[in-house]
Each structure stands twice: as C-alpha cells, then as structure tokens.
Design goal:
- The protein is mostly beta strands and about 100 residues long.
- It has 2 domains: about 40 residues, no CATH class; about 55 residues, no CATH class.
- It has 1 helix and 8 strands, in the order H-E-E-E-E-E-E-E-E.
- A hairpin with a 2-residue loop joins strand 3 and strand 4.
- The relative contact order is 0.13.
C-alpha cells in the first residue's frame, strides 16, 4: 500500500509536499510502480521492506522474508499477548545480526 501514493504523485507529475500547514512532513516510504505499467515482468526495485500491522512484523530483503506474529489474546482470559518469530527456511542474516 505504501507504493500507491508515490505512484499517484508520479502519474500526476506533482511533487510531494515538504510542509503542510506549517508542519514538516515525513518522507514517503514507498516508491512509484509506474515502471511496471509498460513492463509487467519488470524486476522489483525494492530490496528491503519492513511491515508492521497491529504488532505483527515482517521484513523482506532481496527475496528473503522473516516475520514476527503477535498473538492477540482477549484480556478477559487473563493471558498476556505472546510474540513468536516465524523462523525456518526464510531465515535471513545481516552481518552479525539475526533478524
């Protein structure tokens, strides 16, 4: 989803605002996907991407993906949320760090 806004800005040939109503804007995370419009089989231009949805996280890097799923348990059960990394064949390393 974070590639949709940059794509719209690219199609309309407009610049992303640096300031809105006096407030500096954060940089956009996504990239325009207009390069795929005339080349549907084009290789993706993102090498690394991080996802975060309601506490569950995943990272994609150069064809590899690893994730962390937050198990949300209703409070009335008296249990705490649990977080597990989903490792396996999708494990990826960056130098001495294991993601």
């Amino acid at each position: 989803m974070n590639d949709i806004t940059p794509t719209i800005y690219d199609i309309l040939d407009i610049e992303y605002p640096k300031v809105v109503n006096g407030f500096a804007q954060d940089a956009m995370d996504g990239i325009s996907i207009t390069y795929t419009f005339d080349r549907p089989q084009a290789e993706g231009q993102k090498k690394t991407q991080f996802f975060d949805v309601m506490g569950s996280r995943a990272i994609y890097h150069d064809g590899w993906m690893d994730g962390w799923h937050l198990l949300l348990v209703p409070e009335f059960l008296g249990l705490q949320g649990r977080q597990d990394w989903n490792h396996g064949t999708q494990r990826m390393t960056f130098g001495s760090y294991i993601i």
